[in-house]
Specification:
Layout lengths: L4 H24 L1 H8 L3 H29 L1 H19 L5 H15 L2 H12 L5 H30 L1 H22 L11 H9 L4 H5 L5 H5 L2 H30 L5 H29 L2 H5 L3 H12 L11 H29 L6 H30 L3 H21 L8 H10 L7
Helix pairs in contact: 1-6, 1-7, 1-8, 1-12, 3-4, 3-5, 3-17, 4-5, 4-6, 4-8, 6-7, 6-17, 7-8, 7-13, 7-16, 12-13, 12-16, 12-17, 12-18, 13-16, 15-16, 15-18
């Protein structure tokens, strides 16, 4: 039948790669920016966190827009907004302007995951959602790797402003294939007819396709949705700790230059793309469709979170290469857990009209914790003069997230499409589905 649908997965991969590239640019350039604007570690923590404020506020409205207007328009509008704002960051003459451009960047970047999850639900067969989501979420790790390498070079040789100009320009390049090529499976000309029918034939049942969507308030009344959102938060806290503070940690605690820290930051991110993709492939391979609808993927989520808590060992290690290995393993576990948690959501919701809203709720949970990560870390560093306790906080949250995945992410209803929807929207109030 062919696998041309994976070209769509690649577009999602590059969408999120560019998203996280622009986020990492500030992290790598943090020290030169802090010097130019005379910022303390606490002030820098707030600046590193700032795009998360508008990102968080925009997620639920963006999810509703995706469900209403579709993925093509919303993804294109989002990357246009955040790319323009990133390029404007390069022109910032004051701290206030710098902060404003980051806030606008956050609003634009809120579109990528809700739109991406809509594409996964639309294009990926149920038996392939783990690997499709791994492509999507893999960009969250490829982006920081690319950003650390390229930004480190640009900052060292051309100054921090050029790094933001280049990061913004790349986003506009992605728009060309997206607007020219992407369509829904029913209208995609590059698909063979057998592959098209395979994609359409493995979607939800007609009753689920035609069923009314749930409101945001209904979804927020579900124990399962809350469980997945809290799990997302525990994982994303660690992800944002690495995303915002890892280059500074390597520069300050390990004495690396900006270029060297960029290289050593890239290594864990590059490795995690491949390791996490393979872990998600195994999830698809060994979990059967009936079990997926019962939420069995939550055990894989929990396992990956426990695996990622290896970061707790970091304070007891002095060797730089052992620390890089531990961070690589932890990032791989976090990436796998986040991808599988999104896949779990697509497993247990029945109506495709709820995909954007549920994805946004999970993202709100994740980014509420993620917003705190750089701020809390700034305070921890200021209070202890060390990064060690920052790793401890992240590791304990990962273990807590594993427990939440097992206890709160199990649907209470029947495994059928209608039962899944009832279980999600009614939570534990209707155990029979």
């Amino acid at each position: 039948m062919g696998k041309r649908r994976r070209f769509v997965y690649l577009l999602l991969f590059f969408l999120v790669t560019i998203n996280y590239f622009t986020r990492t640019t500030l992290s790598v350039a943090a020290q030169p920016i802090a010097t130019e604007f005379h910022l303390s570690p606490i002030a820098m923590g707030y600046l590193l966190s700032s795009y998360s404020w508008t990102y968080l506020l925009s997620l639920i409205p963006v999810g509703a827009l995706v469900d209403r207007f579709g993925t093509l328009v919303i993804a294109a509008a989002g990357i246009t907004l955040w790319s323009a704002a990133t390029m404007a960051t390069a022109l910032s003459a004051t701290f206030g302007v710098l902060l404003l451009t980051r806030l606008i960047t956050g609003s634009g970047e809120a579109t990528s995951y809700p739109a991406g999850m809509g594409v996964v639900r639309e294009w990926a067969p149920a038996s392939e959602r783990g690997i499709a989501t791994a492509f999507l979420n893999g960009g969250a790790y490829a982006g920081p790797a690319l950003g650390a390498l390229l930004t480190g070079f640009l900052v060292a040789d051309f100054g921090w402003r050029w790094s933001f100009f280049v990061a913004g320009a790349i986003g506009f390049l992605w728009l060309i294939p997206w607007l020219w090529w992407f369509r829904a499976p029913e209208r995609a000309r590059f698909l063979s007819e057998p592959e098209r029918q395979m994609i359409l034939g493995t979607r939800d049942t007609p009753s689920a396709q035609q069923g009314e969507s749930s409101s945001v308030l209904q979804l927020l009344g579900s124990r399962v949705v809350w469980g997945m959102a809290l799990v997302q938060g525990c994982a994303v806290y660690a992800q944002y700790l690495f995303l915002t503070w890892l280059p500074s940690y390597l520069q300050v605690a390990k004495g690396l230059t900006v270029k060297s820290s960029g290289i050593d930051t890239a290594i864990p991110y590059i490795a995690s793309v491949f390791l996490a993709t393979y872990a998600c492939h195994l999830s698809d391979r060994f979990l059967r469709k009936g079990n997926l609808e019962r939420g069995s993927r939550r055990f894989a989520v929990a396992l990956m979170l426990v695996f990622s808590s290896v970061i707790l060992v970091t304070p007891f290690v002095d060797s730089l290469w052992v620390i890089i290995l531990l961070i690589t393993l932890s990032l791989s576990g976090v990436s796998s857990a986040v991808s599988l948690n999104f896949a779990l959501a697509t497993d247990v919701i029945s109506s495709p009209r709820d995909t954007g809203k549920v994805a946004s709720i999970l993202l709100v949970g994740g980014n509420a914790f993620g917003l705190l990560a750089p701020i809390v870390t700034g305070y921890v560093i200021a209070a202890t003069k060390s990064y060690n306790w920052a790793f401890v906080v992240a590791g304990l949250l990962l273990i807590g997230g594993a427990a939440l995945a097992v206890l709160m992410s199990r649907p209470a209803g029947c495994p059928s499409g209608e039962g899944r929807l009832a279980a999600i929207t009614q939570g534990t109030s209707n155990p029979s589905g």
